[in-house]
Write a structure and sequence with these properties.
mainly alpha; Multidrug-efflux Transporter Regulator, Chain: A, Domain 2; 2 domains; three-stranded antiparallel beta sheet
Length: about 140
Amino acid sequence: MATLRSISEVAGAFDTTVSALRYYDELGLVPSTQRRARVRYYDEAALRRLAFVRLWHDDGMMSLEDTAEVMAGPTRDQWRTLVSQRLDDIAQIAARLDEARQALEHLLQCPRDNPLECPVIGERIQAQVELAFATNT
């Protein structure tokens, strides 16, 4: 017989809350394997589904809605489209983070006493001002 883990045991092991597990169950992401009295229990397959949800959602790779759609078993083309879109989103986020990293590294090396007087940062600030008004006109 497969080992079943109680909802509180699973919450502790996965460093999450019982309410989060209940929510995942309501969404159909991680249904409990069985209930005894009012306690939900999870088998190995449910734990693997939970690990999948945590990987995709907690690490910021996908929303719960997109994760649910992938797990619902759409066609290969459908889930690949979702994953491809999220990959594009992550690439854009990574590019913005890289720009931020470069700006911060520059500030550490900049000889100016005041970051607002730095010509390199000044160019970035001016570009943001121009962009803000270009999109609002």
